[in-house]
Amino acid sequence: MAVISDIHANLEALSRVLDDIDALGIMEIVSLGDVIGYGPDPQACADILRQRGIPSTLGNHEQGLRPGQCPTDMNPVARDALSRTACMLDEDTAASLRALPRSLERGGCHF
C-alpha cells in the first residue's frame, strides 16, 4: 500500500509520484487529504484520484470548502488559496471533496 498526502493541487508532482507507485507495482493507494490548495490544478488532481479510485480523508483544505467550516487556524495565504481553489472546481468535485470522511480503514490501518 502507498500513502500519499498534501498534494495541494500540484499536478506535476502527483503525476510523478503515481508513476513511481505504478512502476513499483503497488495496487492500493490512500490519500491523507489536502488534495487541493495552493497549486494551480485542483480539478485535475481531484479528477485523477477519483478516476483511479484512490480514497482520501478530509484535509483542512477540503474542510474549508464546507460552508462555515474554514479552519480558524489557517493563515491568510492558505485562506486566500482556498478562495481561489473553490472557484476552480466544478460543483460535483467540490461536493465530493466536502463529503470526504475524516478517517479511513484500509489494510488493517486507520488513517
Kindly describe this structure:
This protein is mainly alpha-helical and 111 residues long. It is built from 5 helices and 4 strands. The strands form 2 sheets. Strands 1-2 form a two-stranded parallel ribbon. Strands 3-4 form a two-stranded antiparallel sheet. Strand 3 and strand 4 (109-110) form a beta hairpin. It is globular and about 40 Å long.
Spatial ordering of strands, largest sheet: 1-2
Specify the oligomeric state: single chain
Number of separate helices: 5
Whole-number average pLDDT?
Answer: 94
Structural class: mainly alpha
Question: Which keywords apply here?
Answer:
single chain; 111 residues; mainly alpha; two-stranded parallel ribbon
Topology at a glance:
Elements: E1 2-4, H1 11-23, E2 29-31, H2 42-52, H3 60-63, H4 76-88, H5 91-98, E3 105-106, E4 109-110
Parallel strand pairs: 1-2
Antiparallel strand pairs: 3-4
In short:
The protein has 111 residues and is mainly alpha-helical. The chain has 5 helices and 4 strands. 44% of the residues lie in helices and 9% in strands.
